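For concreteness, we quote verbatim a single protein encoded this way:
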Amino acid sequence: MDRSRTAAHFDDRALLRPHGLIGSSAMQAGFPVLAGVFRACATEFGVNLADPMAELGTEQRCAQALVRAGFTDVRMAAESVRLPRTDEAQLWRLLSRSPHYPGLRTLGSGEPAGLEARFTFEARRAVDRDAVAALTAPVVYAFG
C-alpha cells in the first residue's frame, strides 16, 4: 500500500480537537459488483482499470491506515448497503466519467461506443441474474 497516499486519506488530525473522532467509509474491495463488470468489460478493450476500493477496501487496511496516520482507539464496523436501481445508460455515464478510471482516455475512436454497448449488456445480465447481489455492497466504516 502506498503509505503517502493512504496517510493523506486520514491526515485530517489537524482539523480535529484533541481526542476528536474521525470517521470514514469505503466499499469493500471488489464492490459494487456493477463497477467490477465495468472494469472487466474495459479489460476486453485493452484497458486495465484498478479497483478504486482496493487500497482501503477491507477492515484491516482501513485500520492500518488510521494507525499509520497516528489515530488511536481504532474501531471498525461493517454492513451492507443497497444501491439504487438505475438504468444502464446512467450507470455508464457515471462510471465512464469517473476520475478513478483515467485509463479510459486511451480508448481509440469508436471504442467507447463499443465498450458502452458491451457494458450495458453485461450490467443488464448481472442485474437480471441476481439483482440483490448486483445492487448490494458491503461497506467498511472506520473510526479513530
User: Anything to note?
Assistant: The longest strand covers residues 75-82.
